[in-house]
Amino acid sequence: MLVDVDPQGNLSSWFMKEASQYELADVLQGKCYYEDAVVEIKAIPNLYLIPTFAIGGTLKLYSETKLSDEPFIIQDLVQSMNNDFDHIVLDLSPGLGRLERSALIASDEVISPMTPEVFGLDGLEIFIEELNKLRKNLRSNLIHEKIIINSFDNRIKQHRDILTAATDGKFDVYKIPVDPHFRKAQEAGKAPQLFKIRGRGLKPATAEAFEMLNQDIWS
Ligand SMILES: Nc1ncnc2c1ncn2[C@@H]1O[C@H](COP(=O)(O)OP(=O)(O)OP(=O)(O)O)[C@@H](O)[C@H]1O
Ligand SMILES: [Mg+2]
C-alpha cells in the first residue's frame, strides 16, 4: 500500500492521469472510509494507492489547519490498514512540518532519499537532528538506517565525496544511477522496473540497485 502524504501528489500523478473520487485528505477528515479512497494500480500486481491530488490543495490546507489537533491521525490510519496490507509505504515531501511529523510518528522505519548535492547532505543532517528530538519527545523507536542517493554518477568527484560522507554516518547507503528510463516510465504511468523502451528495460546497474534495495527493505 502506497500512501501519498506529499501535498504535491507526485506519486499519485505517476500512476493516475485523472483524479478519483476520494483522496487522502478526505480520509483524514472523515469524509470517507480509507477503503473508499484506495486505488488499485492494475499495471502492478498487489499494488494499491491512497492518492493525493495537488489540484485543490486539500491535503496542504488540512495540514495547515485541522491537523495540529490530531498528531496521531496517520498512526490511526496505518493501524486500521495493518491487517489488510503486508507493507505500507508513506511518501513524504522533503519538509519536516506537521504532516511529515505525523507520518513519522506512524512509521517503524524511515528511509531518506537524497540527490548527491552538498545541500542534500545539509538537509540530511538537519533531518537527523529533528528526528532525534521527535524520538525523544514521543518515546518513539523509529529506525533510520537507510539512505538512498538517487541520480548517482560515479564519475563525478562530488558524488563520490557525498557517498563517503553519508556512509561515514553509519548508514546503509544505496546508490541509484541516473537512468532515462525513469522519466519515460513516468510519462507512461508505469513502474520503471516493468517498463521497456524498444524491448529494453532499466540499465543493468539500475536494475541491480533496485534489487539490492528491495531485498534489504522487505526482508
Ligand atoms: N535515477 C534517476 N534517473 C533519471 N531521472 C530520475 C531518477 N530518479 C528520478 N528521476 C526523475 O526525476 C523527477 C523527480 O523524481 P522523484 O519524483 O523521484 O523526486 P522526489 O525525490 O520524490 O522529489 P520530491 O523530494 O520533490 O518529492 C521525476 O521526473 C523522475 O522521473
Ligand atoms: Mg517525492
Structure in words:
The two termini are 17 Å apart. The mean pLDDT is 91. Helix content is 43%, strand content 15%. It has helices spanning 10-15, 24-28, 34-37, 58-64, 73-81, 98-105, 118-138, 157-168, 181-187, 204-218; strands at residues 2-4, 39-40, 48-50, 89-91, 109-114, 143-152, 172-177. It contains ten helices and seven strands. The longest helix is centred in the middle third of the chain and has 21 residues, at 118-138. Strands 2-3-1-4 form a four-stranded mixed sheet. The chain has a domain at 1-107: Rossmann fold. Helix 8 (157-168) links the parallel strand 6 (143-152) and strand 7 (172-177). The protein has 219 residues and is an alpha/beta fold. The protein binds adenosine-5'-triphosphate and magnesium ion. Adenosine-5'-triphosphate (ATP) binds at residues 6, 10, 93-94, 113, 150-151, 176, 178-179, 182-183, 186.
CATH topology (level 3) name of the domain at 1-107: Rossmann fold
Query: Helical stretch count?
Result: 10
Strand content: 15-25%
Distance between the termini: 17 Å
- Please summarize the sheet with the most strands: 4 strands, mixed
Shape: globular
Based on CA atoms alone, the radius of gyration comes out at 18 Å
